[in-house]
Specification:
The structure is a single chain. The chain is of the alpha/beta class. It is built from nine helices and six strands, in the order αβααααβαβαβαββα. It has helices at 3-15, 51-68, 70-79, 82-85, 92-98, 114-131, 143-152, 177-180, 211-230, and strands at residues 33-37, 100-103, 137-141, 157-158, 185-187, 192-197. Strands 2-1-3-6-5-4 form a six-stranded mixed β-sheet. Helix 1 (3-15) packs antiparallel against helix 6 (114-131) and helix 3 runs parallel beside helix 9 (211-230). It is globular and about 50 Å long.
């Protein structure tokens, strides 16, 4: 584990109440792609200390969650551009090894107490994104993650592209998730990009294409943007 990330996790464990069960999934903070999700899956965890076995247990839970919609997550891994990731991904193991994963709410939560956990882990999320200086692409999963990233990433603007699935209304940063699923956004001041996605395996009956096609359109827009900048 990188020392910077280890220090961050240890600070969190000092601040987060001992009655909570936070999830930490990463061994490095230097990945260039970040997935932001909603809340951790509720599963048995070992004691918080020592730290590394605790993180490994959290990673195992994340892989268990991936396996529930394995076809979608494997396709997402294969779609991510090697030029950004730094490797060609072909499996779930590759995905968790080369991409950073985190949650809007760090602790296991029930719907009735999610606000409590959101409030006391909000600072953790801000500190975390300040540490992820090498990240260039953030992929949000679900409505809460899309709402959260708009407060973390600064002003976002849609990147022009021939999106095949868009409705007649032009995408905006304040659009609902269903209207911008798979659209690439940019904060020009930080050169960070965001692709919001709905929840895999959820109700996407209003969407025309397959789930992965929306991500691929956003990634194509990213490739086109980089090509334009090189010319």
């Amino acid at each position: 584990m990188t020392p910077e990330l280890e220090n961050l996790y240890r600070r969190w464990l000092e601040d987060i109440p001992t009655t909570c069960r936070p999830h930490f999934y990463n061994l490095s903070h230097e990945h260039r792609i970040v997935f932001l999700m909603r809340t951790p899956l509720v599963r048995p965890l070992p004691a918080r200390s020592p730290l590394l076995p605790y993180v490994e247990a959290c990673r195992s839970i994340l892989l268990y969650w991936f396996a529930r919609t394995e076809d979608v997550w494997t396709q997402m891994a294969r779609a991510l551009p090697p030029s950004v990731v730094g490797a060609k991904l072909t499996s779930l193991a590759d995905l968790i090894q080369n991409v950073y994963f985190t949650d809007c709410v760090k602790c296991e939560s029930q719907e009735k107490d999610i606000k409590h956990h959101r409030d006391h882990t909000a600072r953790c999320l801000r500190d975390e994104f300040a540490l992820l200086k090498r990240s260039v692409l953030i992929i949000t999963v679900g409505g809460e993650a899309w709402d959260t990233i708009r407060g973390l990433a600064g002003p976002l603007s849609p990147v022009p592209w021939n999106y095949q699935h868009l409705k007649s209304t032009a995408p905006r940063a304040d659009s609902s998730l269903m209207d911008v699923h798979g659209v690439l956004f940019e904060n020009p001041a930080t050169s960070r990009f965001v692709i919001p996605l709905t929840f895999p395996g959820g109700r996407i009956n209003a969407l025309r294409n397959s789930y992965i096609e929306y991500l691929e359109e956003g990634l194509a827009a990213l490739a086109g943007h980089y090509a334009l900048m090189r010319n």
